[in-house]
Amino acid sequence: YRMETTKLYVEYIVVGMETLAIIFLVIFIIIGDAFLPIIKYCIKNIVPSIIMLGWCYILGLIVDRIADIIYDKRKMHIKEKYPIEAETSIIVWEHFKQDAFATFTLSRIRLMRSTALNSFAMLIVCTYAVIKYHCGWKITMLTVVGFLTMAIASDLAHFNLLNNYYKKTMKLENSYLNKGDVKSSEKASSQS
Known about the structure:
The structure is a single chain. Helices cover about 90% and strands about 0% of the residues. It is built from seven helices and no strands. It has helices spanning about 1-30, 35-45, 45-70, 70-80, 90-95, 100-130, 135-190. Helix 4 runs parallel beside helix 7. It is elongated. The termini are far apart.
């Protein structure tokens, strides 16, 4: 249990670091070079670094919640394609003693949806920054292509992971239910 909780903390911190990078870039765009000494100070000193780590965790929670709301329609659409009888999908995976794999997959799903959202935000902010600071068309194109690729790849990974997760959940449950049907029909035929 402790290991899964630790993984969740790390997941939120990674998403929060992506978000914090966007926020820092926005602050840099607004106040300019005056922000650089603050960043250097925070990086060199442990206390501000620990505080920023806490911020990253909180930002990760917030972005995860926002991404969950934004991607809810997709999730519901996919869940409708692969209906299960169990109250939750994790119950099916627990029955087959595969709940660790399910938890790992769900973590990757959350990470991909949040990274897709952050990559899209970074695309907008970074593109604005490189245009504002006249970094040239090569850097601008590299920025656009890089973050657009990251946003699309994360979004596609999210879709594929979510689709495969619910498809496998349905197959696992069906295999369990069908075995139950076979056993009950064998029982009924032996009694007659």
